[in-house]
Amino acid sequence: MIARYLVPSALAAGLALSCVQASPLPPQMAAAPAAATQDATPPLLDPAEFAPDRTFAPPPPHNSPLEALELQQVKALRAAASPERLAQAERDGETENPTAFDQAAGRDLARLPATYALLTRIQRETNRVVHVGKDYFKRLRPYGIDPQMAHCGKGKVADRSYPSGHGGMAWSVGWALTRLMPDRAPAIIARAQDYSLSREICGVHFQSDLEASHGVAVMIADRLLADPRLADQVAAARRELAQP
């Protein structure tokens, strides 16, 4: 079996930095209280700097032994999942926004306008990078390789597996929350790991899809939290989250 999502905080930050060719870049983002998929707001991150061939290592080649091993792992995880865990994976797939972290954060995040706006801004910017990567790599999802495999969702887009959009949300939003709420970091990291695992249990992503998003999302979240242009938003979110 391939190693699971046991990336401690310091290692995750190092992994993120190693995923992109190092060079100091300007961070960026735009506010909105919903999942950030399509958005006309000008990006804050430099698209050229986050070109997919610079940002992501290529996924395992199609029909390679590593792809076969990852597919075997996805099938094993799905087969071993209880009905309750399968139902949770379905729910996680339908909750691609910061509210996925409500329980871990101990807050109703949608009721904290400054915090929610900042988190969705970070998610939106991460999505831009991830979706360009999907278009570039066009990796088949597990059910695209094995059409007989049961999976979550309608399964209409089988060649957008790498990197994972849900994984990008989980790790950009989750990592930002650990910086804003360090006392809740263990629960938040555990939730990001479990949410990512749901995508394998759903049969819609391989582990390497999720690892690719993990590294980049952590780096983007750190950059944006340190961006002077977002300083007022970050301060407002910290004030909200400091309230009991």
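Above is the first protein from milestone M3; the second protein from the same milestone is given next.
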Amino acid sequence: MITGTGTPAPAPLLIACALGIERLALRGGLSGAAGPVTVLRTGMGPQAADRAVTQALADGSVLHDAAVIATGFCAGLAPGMHPGDLVVADETRDSSGHTECVGVELLAKELARAVPRRVIHTGPLIGADHVVRGAERAALHAAGALAADMESAATLRSAVRAGTRPVAAVRVVVDAPEHELVRIGTLRGGISAFRVLRTVLPAFFEWHRSLLLPRR
């Protein structure tokens, strides 16, 4: 896209989340972005995420060349994780394959600056079509995954299928092996995760800004 001055317009940033409560956490603080930003609520589950992201990035849409970040809540799989911890995926996985993430170290660095008192984990994020608990959680961790959610893998796979673009996934742990929640938002862990999710946008914007810099 070319602006009225004849210079290329900054590529958009699409931030995808599944739940209304996640969208609520991300509503504020959109100023300071390096280009246009859209927060897309996809709905729950991999099929909903696939459908919503594919439609948003369709040829001819204003977002067709957008960088994409999948975000929201996740289940931590590793012992010792706590609600409010952050997970920066180096790749997303599911039964359909895996997608490599871009700018992982930068995202982790910027999140550490934005939320200095929170633990940040980096590793594989696995996709599921249901909430994982108990023995299944342990089995997924034994297979190498750090955290699980239902939409990130489908979101990033759909994004790269629609065209070459930077993709990333950042999730906030809402429950963990020693801190399982019955329902998001009803216990302290859910409230903690919500508060952390409200702080992540500056890190996302710095990641996006770095993608717009000329490469040497």
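Note on the second protein: The longest strand covers residues 67-76.
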